[in-house]
Amino acid sequence: MRKLLFLIGILVIAFPVFAQDATPEMTTMPESAPWTCPEGYEGQTLSIFNWSTYIAEDSISNFEAACGVTVIYDVYESNEAMLARLRGGNPGYDLVVPTGNTVAIMIAGGLLEPLDFANIPNFANVTDALKDPSYDPGNVYTVPYQWGTIGVGYNITKVGEPITSWDQVFNYDGPVAWLDDLRGMMGIALNILGYDPNTEDPAEIEAAKQFLIDNGKNVVAIAGDDGQAMLERGDVDITIEYSGDILQVINSCECDNFDYALPDEGAVVWVDNLAIPTDAPNKALAEVFIDYILDPHVGADISNYTAYASPNKTAIAEGLIDEAYLSSPIIYPSEAAMQNLFAILDEPEAEQIYNDAWDEIKISLGK
Question: What angle do the packed helices 296-306 and 59-67 form, to 10 degrees?
Fold first, then answer.
């Protein structure tokens, strides 16, 4: 029953973003005015901690120019790396970008500051389906940034056939990379084994751990969000990766060598979020930046650059998102594909069990 509930939740959360809002050709909505910065922030500094390759090339420089501020921009490769940094004491970050299940862990650990939505009027642009998520009821601490899936990027020429099953990945006779996303990878294994991908049962987590160890003989790397680069270079023929990262490879290649698949057994859907960590030096400027990101023009620029799905209903309604992206089943999966997607939910009580299992997997595989 629990698996059914969170699957229904994903259909409610994710699919309507495309089905209801991605119809720019049907709207007469006038284009919104460009974003302007509130006064009083000139000379200040904002420190951001975000995933790599996850913002448009001019998003930061445009914000600096609009507000007369300086932005320090650091990157991380996993939620776990970001968490470890903050748990040791916030070294000075004003903004972080955690995935949904990590948000709940951060809230439980007192690592996030409540948002003042009086400073974030552009929250009105967020699609209703992505508001009030289970990991942050009422959006007390977060707003959505981008959403997408974890699936399989592969070289069609090398693999020789379309990928439709996880068996083709785990049994492939050639180099494969996994994504260094412990809950995502464990969730995939649990789902294949017929268990709840969010189980807290130590025996089921142990079974998933053993499944990955037993089926990891073709793994040459557990990639820290750079599996797409390994695929593009030819280091691997298959990589488990984020949807947008693979679409970037497909678009930049100008070839027919690469594709992305959501295996029939099921795959992960996720939402990343903007949040302010506890002890942020400049919370007010961070809220101004969040409002800037939720501007339809800015949000569209980011989604058009990163090739991830936009949570911004105004950007979609105004036709600011690339039409080819709106029609892409990689970015916005079909209703049928959505039926097989599952979310990784917050399980703070089982966090250490999952962490230990993932460490054992990496040690066993020599990664």
Answer: 160
